């Protein structure tokens, strides 16, 4: 199984800040890496697939990068609606493990 | 528009089984696989398994120890997730999600079904 280590587990930031969340895979997964946003009481929402491709309808302030074992999700200028939890997920081989999540909270 | 609509909340006793449905609409059902993901209260996301709606091929997380079965009814555009020998730590919200046919990402999700296991 591919182990996914996501950091930080929690992050405090302000509206307008630039924030970056990182995800590290236990082995090379090429670009088989996806990012999801989840708000309380809601299903996850796909933000980024294939490490850096922006899902249709997702604001351009979200961007993803990386390949191999190290990946990032960056929000260029935080908006109030961005305070949520974020999860990375590898889709290289089953089971398609999720990272443990990052809770982004208002400072 | 693409929709995945899941069946309602369930309360089960330890040792029982539960079967959750996921009805798809708004797209060609057999062109996309369906995955199941669960989330225990206050915890992260756990991938449970995947089913090809075209050929019925399945993949499962080994952590479920053979207790889960995914099946499809193409005539009803519905996927079912059955979990047997329920334990208290199976209490979770269960989600179905569509495999986007790109790089294994899940592009549409059901609303979730809360399964509570309690004596």
Explained architecture:
The complex is a heterodimer of chains A (107) and B (119). Chain A is mostly beta strands. Helices cover 0% and strands 48% of the residues of chain A. Chain A contains no helices and 10 strands. Chain A has a 6-stranded mixed beta sheet, with no helix packed on it. In chain A, a hairpin with a 3-residue loop joins strand 5 (45-49) and strand 6 (53-54). Chain A is globular and about 35 Å long. The mean pLDDT of chain A is 97. Chain B has 119 residues and is mainly β. In chain B, 0% of the residues lie in helices and 50% in strands. Chain B contains no helices and 11 strands. Chain B has strands at 3-6, 10-12, 18-25, 34-39, 46-51, 58-60, 68-73, 78-83, 92-99, 106-109, 113-117. In chain B, the strands form 2 sheets. In chain B, strands 2, 4, 5, 6, 9, 10 and 11 form a 7-stranded mixed beta sheet that branches. A 4-stranded antiparallel beta sheet of chain B has the order 1-3-8-7, with no helix packed on it. The chains are: A mainly beta (107), B mainly beta (119). At the A-B interface, strand 4 and strand 5 of A face strand 5 and strand 10 of B.
